[in-house]
């Protein structure tokens, strides 16, 4: 028996869009999820595999989370090293596709939050946050869209944050990076 997985997207106006895997019950799709070391990414990878879909779960450094990587592989998934902010992201994604096949669903989940007053933040920390939360997902999209177009289908999910429309003190750069992702 397959379990159900529904992705729900909402914005500040509370409008929502959902993608339910029940619609694709007879279709097995290949998902690639970034940022699976813990939290939402890891839970999403578990749910994808439980629903009978294929999942490539990624993290910057799988050696830091060997139990998560082992669990995903035990559930039938693939764990791959992928740093969303790395300059070689597009070529690394190409290697993953060459080895494991076309990505049907890309989930840009990896995120990074450095907080504090803007005037005290180092430019490097600001750049790192923008690379991880905005430019990395853009490069990932650019890497997978050509094969999605060639196949005539594909889904891209960008995990953002309510912080982009309801920012808190000390989160200006994080909020800006998530606002940029929302486009």
Automatic annotation (TrEMBL):
<protein>
    <submittedName>
        <fullName>Retinol dehydrogenase</fullName>
    </submittedName>
</protein>
<dbReference type="InterPro" id="IPR036291">
    <property type="entry name" value="NAD(P)-bd_dom_sf"/>
</dbReference>
<keyword id="KW-0560">Oxidoreductase</keyword>
<dbReference type="InterPro" id="IPR051911">
    <property type="entry name" value="SDR_oxidoreductase"/>
</dbReference>
<comment type="similarity">
    <text>Belongs to the short-chain dehydrogenases/reductases (SDR) family.</text>
</comment>
<dbReference type="GO" id="GO:0016491">
    <property type="term" value="F:oxidoreductase activity"/>
</dbReference>
<dbReference type="Pfam" id="PF00106">
    <property type="entry name" value="adh_short"/>
</dbReference>
<dbReference type="InterPro" id="IPR002347">
    <property type="entry name" value="SDR_fam"/>
</dbReference>
């Amino acid at each position: 028996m397959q379990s159900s997985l529904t992705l729900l997207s909402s914005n500040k106006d509370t409008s929502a869009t959902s993608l339910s895997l029940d619609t694709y019950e007879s279709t097995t799709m290949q998902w690639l999820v970034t940022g699976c070391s813990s939290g939402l990414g890891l839970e999403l990878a578990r749910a994808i595999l439980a629903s009978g879909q294929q999942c490539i779960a990624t993290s910057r450094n799988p050696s830091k989370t060997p139990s998560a990587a082992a669990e995903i592989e035990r559930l039938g998934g693939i764990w791959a090293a992928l740093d969303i902010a790395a300059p070689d992201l597009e070529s690394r994604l190409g290697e993953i596709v060459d080895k494991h096949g076309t990505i049907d669903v890309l989930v840009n989940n990896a995120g990074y939050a450095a907080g504090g007053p803007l005037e005290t933040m180092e430019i490097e920390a600001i750049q790192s946050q923008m690379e991880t939360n905005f430019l990395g997902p853009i490069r990932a999209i650019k890497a997978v869209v050509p094969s999605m177009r060639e196949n005539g289908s594909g889904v891209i999910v960008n995990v953002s944050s309510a912080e982009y429309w309801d920012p808190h003190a000390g989160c200006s750069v994080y909020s800006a990076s998530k606002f940029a992702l929302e486009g």
